[in-house]
Specification:
Length: 510
């Protein structure tokens, strides 16, 4: 036994001979040393309570002793052999190893409490090792089973989730930080914003007015971009991804690691469109050639030359597309971590939220609201873990179509409770031109031609004002104001651009 527990009788059997089979990782002496230090000085508890839980102890008796001491200390009372004795007088397991006298022996054997935190961390580490063994055994057993509901890929995702949960269980690397450190971090963010041309504190979206409203795309933020079909949410997300990747300029961090001085590396999860379709959209935007013409092959020679030239120029931009259908949130997390480790990562875009799946579970009915909650929480956790902004596209309910004013609201989000709650920013794409184009007035029975022409002229005037424009409505923003901005929209090349009003057009001298 170690010096810290010298003098303790052999109350918990420790097998001296190496058995013919492997026993789970454990250190009963470290558990005894920690409990002894805890009973002598309750300040020991506050050194280990952040990461050490009762079920981390291997010996069940030690687990119950720690749990009882935890309850007493949390009530503001002193935990020592005398105060704990009543709780264990009738404990048969404790009686087998000496009864309540064992508590006194633990306390009497302590030499120092200085190493208590080290004992606690070793207990925690050994617990993780035992859990790894258990997960490994489960993976092997499940792989042998022929379960029709769980194919191999889903089993891998379940294993990944269990490993991730284990990695974050009892993590002691969080907690409080001095305000001085928070001030230094805030100053670094402000300095980065000052050095950027757009004066944004986050990654620039490439749209002037949007950056001005949001301050850029902030690391650790979950941003929802929502809209009804054909509003252009995928187009806007693709434009942002292209703008960020095209502006990428690599620099070096304080320790020599590669960092983005401007723009960034983008991961685009496209669950609805193929990678080739997204690439066609981006090429259409970059070359100015209609995407519809590209698909049909109806391009002139000069247009095809522009198309090829744009393709050559864009080959080196750090934009990575994953078009795997029905991805799970666990797979998204695993692939994003891998990309960040291999290439770096500054922005994640998911198109779209409702096409992701939650973590599969055995024998449990799929509750869509709970599944969406798990997905949004997972995306928010991913944004914080990798310290990158995450833009997740979302569909809106049909309630929008039933209103006269079809501008979307927060309540129009599908499963809006979890999406709205977890998001740091919610934006909607709205194009009045889309609805007006489908509402051209028809002549009513017994309506005079003059009246009809007047109504048609009013509609045409509204069409002229709304044509080529789109609104991005910011319905929620934790870091700034809500409101809306206007962007230009070109349907032929599926491209959004900064809107320049008539009052900002340059003057022409006649």
């Amino acid at each position: 036994m170690s010096q810290a527990v010298r003098g303790v009788e052999s109350v918990v059997p420790v097998i001296g001979q190496v058995p013919s089979y492997r026993t789970p990782p454990q250190n009963l002496e470290a558990e005894q040393a920690l409990l002894g230090a805890l009973l002598v000085n309750n300040a020991t508890y506050h050194r280990v309570s952040e990461f050490l839980r009762p079920d981390y102890f291997f010996e069940p008796v030690h687990r119950r002793i720690y749990e009882a001491a935890e309850k007493i200390i949390e009530r503001g009372q002193i935990a020592n052999p005398l105060t704990l004795k009543p709780f264990f007088e009738q404990d048969g397991a404790l009686a087998d190893i000496g009864g309540a006298r064992y508590l006194a022996q633990l306390a009497a054997s302590v030499v120092t409490i200085i190493n208590a935190a080290d004992y606690g961390r070793q207990i925690y580490d050994l617990h993780l090792r035992r859990q790894l063994i258990e997960i490994g055994g489960d993976v092997v057993n499940e792989a042998f089973e022929q379960d029709l509901d769980l194919d191999a890929k889903k089993q891998i995702e379940m294993a990944e989730k269990r490993l991730f949960d284990l990695a974050t269980e009892g993590a002691a690397d969080g907690g409080f930080q001095p305000f001085k450190q928070a001030l230094l971090n805030a100053t670094e963010i402000a300095e980065a914003a000052y050095k950027r041309g757009g004066k944004t504190s986050g990654v620039s979206s490439g749209f002037r007015d949007l950056d001005k409203k949001l301050g850029g795309l902030h690391p650790s933020d979950l941003m929802i971009l929502a809209g009804r079909p054909s509003m252009g949410k995928t187009t806007l997300a693709t434009n942002i991804a292209f703008n960020v990747a095209r502006a990428y300029r690599q620099g070096r961090g304080p320790t020599g690691e590669a960092v983005a001085e401007d723009g960034g590396v983008v991961a685009f999860y496209s669950l609805e469109m193929s990678a080739e379709q997204l690439a066609t959209r981006i090429l259409s935007e970059a070359s100015g050639v209609s995407g519809d013409k590209i698909r049909r092959g109806e391009v002139a020679r000069d247009e095809f030359d522009r198309f090829v030239q744009a393709s050559l120029e864009l080959q080196s931009i750090p934009l990575f597309i994953d078009d795997t259908p029905a991805l799970s949130i666990a797979a998204v997390r695993t692939r994003a971590r891998r990309l960040k480790r291999q290439q770096g990562l500054d922005l994640i875009i998911v198109d779209y939220l409702q096409l992701l799946t939650g973590t599969p579970s055995r024998g449990a009915e799929v509750n869509r609201v709970q599944e969406i909650s798990e997905i949004t929480r997972g995306l928010k956790a991913l944004a914080k873990e990798l310290s990158v902004p995450v833009i997740a596209l979302s569909q809106l309910s049909r309630a929008v179509e039933q209103r006269e004013d079809k501008r979307p609201q927060l309540a129009d989000l599908r499963e809006s409770g979890s999406i709205e709650q977890d998001a740091d920013c919610v934006m909607f794409v709205y194009r009045e031109e889309y609805y007006l184009g489908r509402a051209e007035p028809a002549r009513r029975p017994e309506e005079s031609e003059d009246k009809y022409l007047q109504r048609h002229a009013e509609w045409w005037d509204r069409m002229g004002k709304a044509g080529g424009k789109a609104e991005v409505i910011i319905g929620k923003q934790r870091h700034g104001p809500i409101g809306s901005i206007t962007l230009s929209f070109d349907g032929a090349t599926t491209k959004f651009a900064d809107y320049i009003g008539a009052d900002h057009l340059p003057e022409h001298n006649e």
